[in-house]
Amino acid sequence: MSQPITVAIERRIDPSLHLYARTWLQQGIDLASTRPGFLGAGWVEEAPGSDTWHMLYRFDDADRLAEWEDSEERRRWLDAGAAFAHEARVERRTGIEGWFDAVEGVTLPGEQVQIRVEEPAPPRWKQAVTVWVAFFPMNLLTTWLLSFIPGFAELPLWLRLLIATLLLTPVMVGWVLPFVTRLFRPWLRRGIAPHEAAPDRDPDSQHPDA
């Protein structure tokens, strides 16, 4: 099952070329917006005059994201900014890690693009417990229901597991895990210090695409 992927990039920008960098970043968003599967993009300075800028873009699945990231247009665009913009960090949000993301974020005024506030992920053992709590009853229920199919118990073990996982995985990804992580969210976040509120942004530094 395909799912949207959000890419967040932190860049260091030469302070002497901020005006030029704004035009360059907007050009990148305009180029990405022409690609199939594009869902939105935006960028924001960490603070007025800061040399740390954050860019976000989102595609509807990994294949279309890869097409954009491997495209000649993107390569030429990156080359044009190589002298003044340098990637410091890149994050992708999808899959199991995405289920544990914080829901808080900063919505850029006038647009539907959201930049998520990064929070530390819950401890791995809590993530494991949450996934098990979701998986065990669903696996038990699926195994019980399949036992009513005549002849199913006589199938080879690998084939029974294949059928069960093919049926169970979309249900787990689409409904059960999101529901369980929302239900367990207070426990998952307990003991994790929230980030301080994001500083006010300079409205002129916000340029999400339409």
TrEMBL record:
Domain of life: Bacteria
UniProt domain ABM: residue ranges: 6-78
Keywords recorded for this protein, A-Z: Membrane, Monooxygenase, Oxidoreductase, Transmembrane, Transmembrane helix
Keyword Membrane included in the entry's annotation: yes
Positions of transmembrane segments: 129-152, 158-180
Pfam families per record: ABM
Family matches, as InterPro entries: ABM_dom, ABM_predict, Dimeric_a/b-barrel
A GO molecular-function descriptor: monooxygenase activity
Protein name stated in the entry: Antibiotic biosynthesis monooxygenase
